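Format is sequence with structure; example below:
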Amino acid sequence: MRIGDFQESYAADEALFRTATQRVWVGVLGVALAAFPLVAGEYLLYLANLVGVLLIGALGLNILTGYTGQISLGHAGFMGVGAYATAIAATRLGLPFWLAIPAGGAAACAAGAVVGVPSLRIKGLYLAIATLAAQVIFEWVFTNWTGVTGGIRGLNVPPARLPGLVLDTDLRTYYLVLVVVVLHAYAAANLFRTRVGRAFVAVRDRDLSAELIGVNLFRTKILAFMVSSWYAGVAGGLFVYFTKVVTPESFPLTLSIQFLAMIIVGGLGSIQGAIYGTVFVTLVPEGLRSLAQVAQELAPDAMTFFHPMRDIVFGAMIVGFLVFEPHGLAELVNRGRRFFALWPFPK
């Protein structure tokens, strides 16, 4: 039974994965993710790509809301900014995907800097309303600035290309999404081991106390919005290369609420929580939809009952997490790990 961790150097103490067991499981996970397309069908690959794209966006919102305490209801709008900027860079400027996606992230980052300005004077529900207004403005721009965005018709984007390889299928796009997800998850995990990340947490816990110990509130809050928006913009750029088209309907307010549900269900202020929440919020409705289809095959009239029940059950599950486990799925997983670490001895 493990009774403690003993580190002999600062490097070992600051390591992201401190034990050999953790490193082995991470390696197993990496092999499983790399081999997943070999056993998955087209539908599962589609879901895996969708989860990967949304996970990057959820990580960004968790940095802003979970770690810095700034509520945002405009995250889908920033994702849309990144998607349109990526599409324009790819189609009109002819940039390759490895430059177009960062261009989308930079455009969303700039938009986040502008929207984050009111965060110094307002917080809580007032800030949520301000970001909601930004979401509405973004949607209006996407729909009506036809000369740039193409209006309701949107923009068609060619597939990403590598030397001698066109990423025109879900199988090939999967590895692009996987690499970007791993890089951004690793960056997010390491961000809060730095001075900037600790400043984010200090602002979340008590902004006035953080200011007293030397944290620049304005710069920190703006930086949090920029980092979060970068993640959203990169997610939007990947979404463009995943779907090959971008339209205003792809980034509604409901998507912003969905992002918020992901980090709440998974666990605020937790990188693992963002992963668990994204998987849960994305895949559980698909599972309920599959159950509804099975019920329809058994009883053709059952769909009239199961179709609304799918949304009711999904909403009830989210409410259940808020009531019985406010810390989300990440806390449930940590409890399970602590239980098996001490088993068979009592706490």
Remarks:
- The first helix runs from residue 10 to 13.
- The domain at 38-342 is CATH 1.10.3470 (ABC transporter involved in vitamin B12 uptake, BtuC).
- The longest strand covers residues 160-162.
